[in-house]
Amino acid sequence: MMKVGLLFGSFNPVHIGHMAVANFFAEFTPLDQVWMVVSPHNPLKPPGTLLQDYHRASLVQLAIGDYSKIKLSKVEFTLPRPSYTINTLIHLSENYPGYSFVLLMGTDSLETLHKWKNHEQILEHYEIFVYPRPGFSGGKLINHSKVSLHQAPLIEISSSFIRNSLKQGKDVRFMLPAPVWKEIDELNFYRK
């Protein structure tokens, strides 16, 4: 059975921190692949702040390049909105019966998992691989039998920092995969 880690995010834009986490889980855990699931709209974020879905997906694909252990997933683009992780997991499990899906998240997200739609169902049916985030222990769920902590390297860069920096005219090329920087620079994303 193919074991696939799902790294969800708006990736607005994708940066080297995202790619380092995906790369770590692809190479240093029992996962066969990591799918970067580009979310069209996070129910916890205002909808107007996102670059167009297809632009964000394109940037993720540019970041991945020809690395076969990481794949782009646009599955949530076709599902009802707002996107809920449980709905995506059920959809993927039904459509890929030979696959076992694992959620990948930081300890910050694990601390709020109890607020997610049908979180009990997620914990019952799916493993969760967690990576540390400074200032977050993971809360009570860190000791859950389906949760395991993995020491992924941390690169403390946020997409909002990159967006704000670009608006200020800063050159942040080394915080982004080179092809992503090239695309953002050429298309003038996030500068307006």
Would you mind describing this structure in some detail?
The chain is α/β, with parallel strands linked by helices and 192 residues long. The chain has one domain: Rossmann fold (3-Layer(aba) Sandwich). Helix content is 35%, strand content 18%. The chain has helices at residues 16-28, 53-64, 85-95, 107-112, 119-125, 159-167, 178-187; strands at residues 2-9, 33-38, 70-73, 99-106, 127-131, 147-149. Strands 3-2-1-4-5-6 form a six-stranded parallel beta sheet, sandwiched between helices. Helix 2 runs antiparallel to helix 7 (178-187). It is globular, with a radius of gyration of 16 Å. It starts with a strand and ends in a 5-residue tail after the last helix. The mean pLDDT is 94.
CATH first level: Alpha Beta
Number of strands: 6
The amount of helix comes to 25-40%
Q: Give the overall average pLDDT.
A: 94
What letter string, H or E per element, gives the SSE order? EHEHEHEHHEEHH
Counting structural domains, the number is 1
Task: List segments where confidence is low: pLDDT < 50 over at least 5 consecutive residues.
Answer: none
**Would you identify the CATH architecture?**
3-Layer(aba) Sandwich
Tell me the CATH superfamily.
Answer: HUPs
Instruction: Report how far the terminal alpha carbons are from each other.
Output: 46 Å
Beta-strand residue percentage: 15-25%
Report Rg: 16 Å
Instruction: Give the structural class.
Output: alpha/beta
**SS field, number of helical segments:** 7
CATH topology title: Rossmann fold
